[in-house]
Amino acid sequence: MRGSRISGMGHYLPERVVTNDDLAKFIDTSNEWIVQRTGIEERRWVEGNVGASDLAFEATKEALEEAGIKASDLDMIIFATLSPDINFPGSSCILQKMLNAPGVATLDIRNQCTGFVYGLSIADQFIKTGMMNNILVVGAEVHSSGLDMSTRGRDVTVLFGDGAGAAVVSASETDSRILDSKLHADGTQYDILMVELPASRLKERITADMLDDARHYPVMDGRNVFRQAVTAMPAVVNEVLEAHGYTPQDIDLLVPHQANLRINQMVARSLKLTQDQVFNNIMRYGNTTAASIPIALHEAIQAGRVKDGDLVVLAAFGAGLTWGANLIRW
Ligand code: COA
Questions:
Q1: 287 Ramachandran zone, left/alpha/beta (phi>0; psi -120 to 50)
Q2: Ligand 1 site-directed mutation target among 37, 113, 159, most atoms within 8 Å of CB
Q3: Domains of the chain, with CATH numbers?
Protein backbone atom coordinates (compact mmCIF):
# COMPACT_ATOMS: atom_id res chain seq x y z
CA MET A 1 0.00 0.00 0.00
CA ARG A 2 1.34 3.42 -0.95
CA GLY A 3 1.35 5.87 1.93
CA SER A 4 3.11 8.86 3.38
CA ARG A 5 5.32 9.59 6.36
CA ILE A 6 7.27 12.47 7.84
CA SER A 7 10.87 11.72 6.83
CA GLY A 8 12.57 14.78 8.32
CA MET A 9 11.87 17.80 10.50
CA GLY A 10 13.53 21.08 11.41
CA HIS A 11 12.77 24.25 13.30
CA TYR A 12 14.29 27.64 13.80
CA LEU A 13 13.76 30.44 16.29
CA PRO A 14 15.34 33.89 16.17
CA GLU A 15 18.00 34.44 18.84
CA ARG A 16 16.47 37.54 20.45
CA VAL A 17 14.55 36.58 23.59
CA VAL A 18 11.80 39.03 24.64
CA THR A 19 10.54 38.49 28.17
CA ASN A 20 7.24 39.70 29.61
CA ASP A 21 9.19 42.25 31.65
CA ASP A 22 10.71 43.55 28.40
CA LEU A 23 7.18 44.13 27.05
CA ALA A 24 6.14 45.88 30.25
CA LYS A 25 8.74 48.57 29.45
CA PHE A 26 6.60 49.94 26.59
CA ILE A 27 3.15 48.40 27.14
CA ASP A 28 0.94 48.70 30.22
CA THR A 29 1.12 45.00 31.14
CA SER A 30 2.88 42.74 33.64
CA ASN A 31 4.63 39.39 33.79
CA GLU A 32 1.99 38.25 36.27
CA TRP A 33 -0.96 39.11 33.98
CA ILE A 34 0.59 37.41 30.94
CA VAL A 35 1.69 34.25 32.79
CA GLN A 36 -1.65 33.87 34.60
CA ARG A 37 -3.81 34.28 31.50
CA THR A 38 -1.62 32.59 28.88
CA GLY A 39 1.31 30.70 30.41
CA ILE A 40 3.69 32.66 28.17
CA GLU A 41 6.97 33.66 29.84
CA GLU A 42 8.96 34.80 26.82
CA ARG A 43 8.95 34.77 23.03
CA ARG A 44 11.49 35.23 20.22
CA TRP A 45 11.36 38.27 17.95
CA VAL A 46 13.53 38.89 14.90
CA GLU A 47 15.88 41.85 14.67
CA GLY A 48 16.08 44.04 11.57
CA ASN A 49 14.66 43.11 8.17
CA VAL A 50 13.91 39.39 8.42
CA GLY A 51 10.99 37.77 6.58
CA ALA A 52 9.03 34.59 7.14
CA SER A 53 11.00 32.85 4.39
CA ASP A 54 14.32 33.65 6.11
CA LEU A 55 13.16 31.70 9.17
CA ALA A 56 11.60 29.00 6.98
CA PHE A 57 14.91 28.57 5.12
CA GLU A 58 16.76 27.65 8.32
CA ALA A 59 14.08 25.17 9.40
CA THR A 60 13.95 23.67 5.92
CA LYS A 61 17.71 23.05 5.72
CA GLU A 62 17.48 20.97 8.89
CA ALA A 63 14.40 19.06 7.70
CA LEU A 64 15.98 18.25 4.31
CA GLU A 65 19.16 17.04 5.97
CA GLU A 66 17.22 14.73 8.30
CA ALA A 67 15.17 13.42 5.37
CA GLY A 68 18.42 12.82 3.45
CA ILE A 69 17.28 14.63 0.32
CA LYS A 70 18.25 17.79 -1.56
CA ALA A 71 15.89 20.72 -2.20
CA SER A 72 15.87 19.76 -5.88
CA ASP A 73 14.41 16.35 -4.89
CA LEU A 74 11.25 18.07 -3.63
CA ASP A 75 8.14 17.91 -5.80
CA MET A 76 6.41 20.77 -3.99
CA ILE A 77 6.91 23.42 -1.31
CA ILE A 78 3.80 24.14 0.79
CA PHE A 79 4.23 27.35 2.80
CA ALA A 80 1.76 28.19 5.56
CA THR A 81 1.92 31.73 6.94
CA LEU A 82 -0.24 34.72 7.83
CA SER A 83 2.81 36.98 7.70
CA PRO A 84 4.19 36.58 4.16
CA ASP A 85 7.45 38.36 3.26
CA ILE A 86 5.59 40.61 0.78
CA ASN A 87 2.00 40.86 -0.47
CA PHE A 88 2.61 38.74 -3.55
CA PRO A 89 3.99 36.44 -4.81
CA GLY A 90 3.73 34.00 -1.94
CA SER A 91 6.58 33.13 0.39
CA SER A 92 6.80 29.64 -1.12
CA CYS A 93 8.33 31.22 -4.24
CA ILE A 94 10.81 33.24 -2.19
CA LEU A 95 11.80 30.13 -0.24
CA GLN A 96 12.16 28.16 -3.49
CA LYS A 97 14.62 30.81 -4.72
CA MET A 98 16.58 30.64 -1.46
CA LEU A 99 16.71 26.84 -1.75
CA ASN A 100 17.93 27.15 -5.34
CA ALA A 101 15.33 24.63 -6.48
CA PRO A 102 13.94 26.01 -9.76
CA GLY A 103 10.99 24.09 -11.18
CA VAL A 104 9.76 22.71 -7.86
CA ALA A 105 6.03 23.45 -7.48
CA THR A 106 5.06 26.04 -4.86
CA LEU A 107 1.83 26.49 -2.91
CA ASP A 108 0.96 29.09 -0.28
CA ILE A 109 -1.85 28.41 2.13
CA ARG A 110 -3.61 30.93 4.35
CA ASN A 111 -5.04 28.99 7.23
CA GLN A 112 -3.43 30.86 10.10
CA CYS A 113 -2.95 28.72 13.22
CA THR A 114 -4.34 25.68 11.40
CA GLY A 115 -1.92 26.18 8.47
CA PHE A 116 0.42 23.31 9.26
CA VAL A 117 -2.43 20.85 9.89
CA TYR A 118 -4.01 21.77 6.53
CA GLY A 119 -0.60 21.68 4.82
CA LEU A 120 0.24 18.22 6.12
CA SER A 121 -3.11 16.96 4.89
CA ILE A 122 -2.55 18.46 1.44
CA ALA A 123 0.91 16.87 1.22
CA ASP A 124 -0.53 13.53 2.35
CA GLN A 125 -3.16 13.60 -0.42
CA PHE A 126 -0.69 14.49 -3.21
CA ILE A 127 1.56 11.64 -2.10
CA LYS A 128 -1.18 9.02 -1.64
CA THR A 129 -2.53 9.66 -5.14
CA GLY A 130 0.96 8.90 -6.50
CA MET A 131 1.38 12.34 -8.08
CA MET A 132 4.32 13.33 -5.86
CA ASN A 133 7.02 11.70 -3.70
CA ASN A 134 8.57 14.42 -1.50
CA ILE A 135 6.81 17.55 -0.27
CA LEU A 136 8.06 20.21 2.10
CA VAL A 137 5.46 21.59 4.51
CA VAL A 138 6.74 24.65 6.30
CA GLY A 139 5.02 27.01 8.72
CA ALA A 140 6.79 30.31 9.41
CA GLU A 141 5.79 33.63 10.92
CA VAL A 142 7.31 37.01 11.58
CA HIS A 143 4.63 38.55 13.77
CA SER A 144 6.77 41.13 15.52
CA SER A 145 6.87 43.58 12.59
CA GLY A 146 3.05 43.59 12.46
CA LEU A 147 2.08 44.07 16.10
CA ASP A 148 0.84 47.23 17.80
CA MET A 149 3.71 48.04 20.16
CA SER A 150 1.55 50.29 22.32
CA THR A 151 -0.88 49.62 25.17
CA ARG A 152 -3.76 49.86 22.65
CA GLY A 153 -2.74 46.45 21.22
CA ARG A 154 -1.71 44.76 24.45
CA ASP A 155 -4.31 41.97 24.38
CA VAL A 156 -2.79 40.65 21.13
CA THR A 157 0.82 41.85 21.15
CA VAL A 158 1.83 39.91 24.26
CA LEU A 159 0.67 36.62 22.70
CA PHE A 160 2.71 36.33 19.52
CA GLY A 161 6.23 35.19 18.69
CA ASP A 162 8.32 34.62 15.55
CA GLY A 163 9.60 31.23 14.38
CA ALA A 164 9.51 28.46 11.78
CA GLY A 165 9.01 24.71 11.65
CA ALA A 166 9.30 22.36 8.69
CA ALA A 167 8.54 18.76 7.77
CA VAL A 168 9.44 16.73 4.69
CA VAL A 169 6.60 14.38 3.80
CA SER A 170 7.76 11.41 1.72
CA ALA A 171 6.16 8.44 -0.02
CA SER A 172 6.29 5.02 1.56
CA GLU A 173 5.64 1.92 -0.55
CA THR A 174 4.74 -0.31 2.41
CA ASP A 175 2.42 1.54 4.76
CA SER A 176 1.10 4.99 5.70
CA ARG A 177 2.26 6.72 8.84
CA ILE A 178 0.01 9.72 8.23
CA LEU A 179 -3.29 7.95 8.88
CA ASP A 180 -5.86 10.69 8.42
CA SER A 181 -6.78 14.37 8.77
CA LYS A 182 -10.01 16.16 9.65
CA LEU A 183 -10.31 19.78 8.52
CA HIS A 184 -12.97 22.39 9.32
CA ALA A 185 -13.73 26.11 9.02
CA ASP A 186 -16.41 28.67 9.84
CA GLY A 187 -15.99 31.76 7.68
CA THR A 188 -19.01 33.47 9.24
CA GLN A 189 -16.66 34.41 12.07
CA TYR A 190 -13.70 35.61 10.00
CA ASP A 191 -13.77 39.01 11.69
CA ILE A 192 -13.33 37.91 15.31
CA LEU A 193 -9.59 37.53 14.68
CA MET A 194 -8.13 39.38 11.72
CA VAL A 195 -5.81 41.98 10.23
CA GLU A 196 -7.80 44.11 7.79
CA LEU A 197 -5.17 46.06 5.84
CA PRO A 198 -4.08 46.25 3.09
CA ALA A 199 -7.56 45.33 1.80
CA SER A 200 -8.38 44.79 -1.88
CA ARG A 201 -12.06 45.29 -1.10
CA LEU A 202 -11.38 48.94 -0.31
CA LYS A 203 -11.08 51.43 -3.16
CA GLU A 204 -7.78 52.47 -1.64
CA ARG A 205 -6.16 49.52 0.09
CA ILE A 206 -4.39 51.57 2.72
CA THR A 207 -4.39 55.29 3.57
CA ALA A 208 -2.77 57.43 6.26
CA ASP A 209 -6.17 57.81 7.97
CA MET A 210 -6.60 54.05 8.11
CA LEU A 211 -3.13 53.69 9.62
CA ASP A 212 -4.04 56.30 12.23
CA ASP A 213 -7.04 54.14 13.09
CA ALA A 214 -4.68 51.14 13.56
CA ARG A 215 -6.53 49.04 10.98
CA HIS A 216 -3.26 47.37 9.92
CA TYR A 217 -2.91 45.71 13.34
CA PRO A 218 -4.58 42.47 14.49
CA VAL A 219 -7.94 42.69 16.26
CA MET A 220 -9.29 39.83 18.33
CA ASP A 221 -12.32 38.97 20.41
CA GLY A 222 -10.12 36.97 22.78
CA ARG A 223 -12.81 35.53 25.05
CA ASN A 224 -14.86 34.35 22.11
CA VAL A 225 -11.82 32.70 20.46
CA PHE A 226 -10.89 31.06 23.75
CA ARG A 227 -14.39 29.65 24.32
CA GLN A 228 -14.61 28.15 20.85
CA ALA A 229 -11.05 26.75 20.88
CA VAL A 230 -11.65 24.68 24.01
CA THR A 231 -14.71 23.07 22.39
CA ALA A 232 -13.54 22.65 18.78
CA MET A 233 -10.11 21.15 19.55
CA PRO A 234 -11.32 18.21 21.68
CA ALA A 235 -14.14 17.61 19.17
CA VAL A 236 -11.81 17.35 16.18
CA VAL A 237 -9.35 15.16 18.10
CA ASN A 238 -12.21 12.79 18.97
CA GLU A 239 -13.43 12.89 15.37
CA VAL A 240 -10.10 11.80 13.87
CA LEU A 241 -9.58 9.15 16.57
CA GLU A 242 -13.08 7.66 16.27
CA ALA A 243 -12.71 7.34 12.49
CA HIS A 244 -9.98 4.77 13.20
CA GLY A 245 -11.48 3.07 16.25
CA TYR A 246 -9.24 4.85 18.78
CA THR A 247 -10.06 6.76 21.95
CA PRO A 248 -8.07 9.60 23.62
CA GLN A 249 -6.52 6.97 25.92
CA ASP A 250 -4.75 5.49 22.88
CA ILE A 251 -2.88 8.76 22.21
CA ASP A 252 0.83 8.62 23.01
CA LEU A 253 1.31 12.32 22.32
CA LEU A 254 -1.04 15.20 21.51
CA VAL A 255 0.75 18.20 20.04
CA PRO A 256 -1.79 21.02 20.17
CA HIS A 257 -1.37 24.43 18.59
CA GLN A 258 0.31 26.73 21.10
CA ALA A 259 -2.06 29.70 21.49
CA ASN A 260 -2.61 29.70 25.23
CA LEU A 261 -1.47 27.22 27.89
CA ARG A 262 -4.89 27.51 29.58
CA ILE A 263 -6.60 26.46 26.35
CA ASN A 264 -4.35 23.40 26.07
CA GLN A 265 -4.88 22.47 29.73
CA MET A 266 -8.66 22.62 29.23
CA VAL A 267 -8.39 20.56 26.03
CA ALA A 268 -6.34 17.94 27.91
CA ARG A 269 -8.86 17.86 30.77
CA SER A 270 -11.76 17.53 28.40
CA LEU A 271 -10.08 14.55 26.67
CA LYS A 272 -8.98 13.12 30.06
CA LEU A 273 -5.32 13.11 28.99
CA THR A 274 -2.42 12.95 31.42
CA GLN A 275 0.41 15.50 31.34
CA ASP A 276 2.63 12.88 29.70
CA GLN A 277 0.24 12.72 26.75
CA VAL A 278 0.48 16.43 25.83
CA PHE A 279 3.42 18.55 24.68
CA ASN A 280 3.51 22.31 25.34
CA ASN A 281 6.28 24.84 24.74
CA ILE A 282 4.27 28.08 24.57
CA MET A 283 6.01 29.24 27.76
CA ARG A 284 9.18 29.90 25.75
CA TYR A 285 7.88 30.96 22.33
CA GLY A 286 4.35 32.42 22.63
CA ASN A 287 1.98 31.80 19.73
CA THR A 288 3.95 31.29 16.51
CA THR A 289 0.76 30.50 14.54
CA ALA A 290 1.52 28.25 11.51
CA ALA A 291 4.96 27.46 12.96
CA SER A 292 3.77 26.37 16.40
CA ILE A 293 2.89 22.73 15.71
CA PRO A 294 6.02 21.81 13.70
CA ILE A 295 8.26 23.56 16.24
CA ALA A 296 6.54 21.73 19.12
CA LEU A 297 6.50 18.37 17.33
CA HIS A 298 10.19 18.63 16.49
CA GLU A 299 11.08 19.62 20.05
CA ALA A 300 9.01 16.70 21.36
CA ILE A 301 10.90 14.30 19.09
CA GLN A 302 14.25 15.76 20.15
CA ALA A 303 13.23 15.38 23.81
CA GLY A 304 12.50 11.67 23.26
CA ARG A 305 8.74 12.14 23.72
CA VAL A 306 7.91 10.45 20.37
CA LYS A 307 9.00 6.87 19.73
CA ASP A 308 8.66 4.61 16.73
CA GLY A 309 5.10 3.27 16.58
CA ASP A 310 3.58 5.98 18.82
CA LEU A 311 0.12 7.34 18.04
CA VAL A 312 0.55 11.11 17.60
CA VAL A 313 -2.25 13.65 17.13
CA LEU A 314 -1.70 17.22 15.93
CA ALA A 315 -4.60 19.61 16.57
CA ALA A 316 -5.13 23.29 15.85
CA PHE A 317 -7.67 26.08 16.07
CA GLY A 318 -7.35 29.61 14.83
CA ALA A 319 -8.39 32.57 12.73
CA GLY A 320 -10.78 31.96 9.86
CA LEU A 321 -12.12 30.37 11.91
CA THR A 322 -10.29 27.19 11.00
CA TRP A 323 -9.57 24.02 12.93
CA GLY A 324 -8.38 20.49 12.27
CA ALA A 325 -6.33 17.48 13.35
CA ASN A 326 -3.87 14.97 11.86
CA LEU A 327 -3.53 11.39 13.08
CA ILE A 328 -0.05 9.89 12.69
CA ARG A 329 1.40 6.48 13.52
CA TRP A 330 5.02 7.50 14.12
N1 COA B 1 -1.86 43.14 30.13
C2 COA B 1 -2.64 43.59 31.13
N3 COA B 1 -3.97 43.69 31.03
C4 COA B 1 -4.54 43.34 29.86
C5 COA B 1 -3.77 42.87 28.78
C6 COA B 1 -2.38 42.77 28.94
N7 COA B 1 -1.57 42.33 27.97
N8 COA B 1 -4.61 42.57 27.75
C9 COA B 1 -5.85 42.86 28.19
N10 COA B 1 -5.81 43.34 29.45
C11 COA B 1 -6.91 43.74 30.31
C12 COA B 1 -8.12 44.16 29.53
O13 COA B 1 -8.06 45.50 29.14
C14 COA B 1 -9.23 43.90 30.54
O15 COA B 1 -9.28 44.99 31.43
P16 COA B 1 -10.69 45.53 31.98
O17 COA B 1 -11.27 44.38 32.74
O18 COA B 1 -10.28 46.68 32.83
O19 COA B 1 -11.47 45.90 30.77
C20 COA B 1 -8.75 42.72 31.33
O21 COA B 1 -7.32 42.64 31.09
C22 COA B 1 -9.40 41.41 30.91
O23 COA B 1 -9.34 41.33 29.50
P24 COA B 1 -9.92 40.11 28.72
O25 COA B 1 -9.66 40.30 27.26
O26 COA B 1 -11.32 39.84 29.16
O27 COA B 1 -8.98 38.96 29.30
P28 COA B 1 -9.07 37.41 29.13
O29 COA B 1 -9.15 36.79 30.44
O30 COA B 1 -10.08 37.02 28.09
O31 COA B 1 -7.63 37.06 28.53
C32 COA B 1 -6.60 36.53 26.41
C33 COA B 1 -7.23 37.61 27.30
C34 COA B 1 -6.24 37.19 25.10
C35 COA B 1 -5.35 36.02 27.10
C36 COA B 1 -7.59 35.38 26.23
O37 COA B 1 -8.86 35.88 25.88
C38 COA B 1 -7.15 34.41 25.18
O39 COA B 1 -6.09 33.81 25.26
N40 COA B 1 -7.97 34.18 24.15
C41 COA B 1 -7.64 33.31 23.07
C42 COA B 1 -6.65 33.99 22.21
C43 COA B 1 -6.10 33.08 21.16
O44 COA B 1 -5.94 31.92 21.39
N45 COA B 1 -5.78 33.69 20.02
C46 COA B 1 -5.14 33.01 18.97
C47 COA B 1 -6.02 31.97 18.39
S48 COA B 1 -5.10 30.97 17.40
A1: beta
A2: 37
A3: 3-175 (3.40.47.10), 178-329 (3.40.47.10)
